[in-house]
């Protein structure tokens, strides 16, 4: 079995453990898929027959409005699961997913999902917790977009990214590494890239944040 499949599940559900037998069974049910740069995984409005885990590369999720304008929702980085809501609810996807770079994904279809739900203790609870956190984050950002300042929305988006994409515990100096880009922050906070750049520079000067290539460090 590829070592990155159980690692991907652990990265998204830290309390979940699989036995060697369960790993072997899941390996026989989940499949790998590769996407060339610019290729779509699924399009907006399409019913999806699986959810996905990104092992390598980068996936852009984006929404196209009725007037043709495109809003980037997220730049998915490995190891991250996505497409859960559309698959679990059986509803058409609200967004398109396409590869920004050559990407390798794990595809979890109905059989893999049924196995995880029925045969892996703790998966259903972990999935429910994940949905609850995403829902709470969405509500917080919606409330912030309507009633809070740009700086407050920026802070809420940073906090959500820290919850969802933390690269392990903070280091000895209290810096928490987060796999995220300025575009991710802008999309989550519903702010322009220019505003996010300004707020990032201010946070760096204040010693609260450090910024690197596709990586942020937040002082805890």
Describe the protein's architecture and organization:
The chain has 220 residues and is α+β, with helices and mostly antiparallel strands. The protein folds into two domains: 125 residues, Jelly Rolls, CATH 2.60.120.10; 72 residues, Arc Repressor Mutant, subunit A, CATH 1.10.10.10. Strands 1, 2, 3, 4, 5 and 6 form a six-stranded antiparallel β-sheet that branches. A three-stranded antiparallel β-sheet has the order 7-9-8. The chain is globular. The model has no long low-confidence stretch (mean pLDDT 85).
Radius of gyration: 18 Å
Give the overall form.
globular
- At the third CATH level, what is the topology name of the largest domain? Jelly Rolls
* Class by alpha and beta content: alpha+beta
Strand content: 25-35%
The amount of helix comes to: 40-55%
Please state the average pLDDT score: 85
Between the first and last Cα atoms, what is the distance in angstroms?
37 Å
The tally of helices reads 8
**CATH level-four homologous superfamily name of the largest domain:** Jelly Rolls
Q: Which regions are unreliable across 5 or more consecutive residues at pLDDT < 50? A: none
Query: From N to C, what is the helix and strand string?
Result: HHEEEEEHEHHHEHHEE
Question: Using DSSP, what is the number of strands?
Answer: 9
User: What CATH architecture of the largest domain do you see?
Assistant: Sandwich
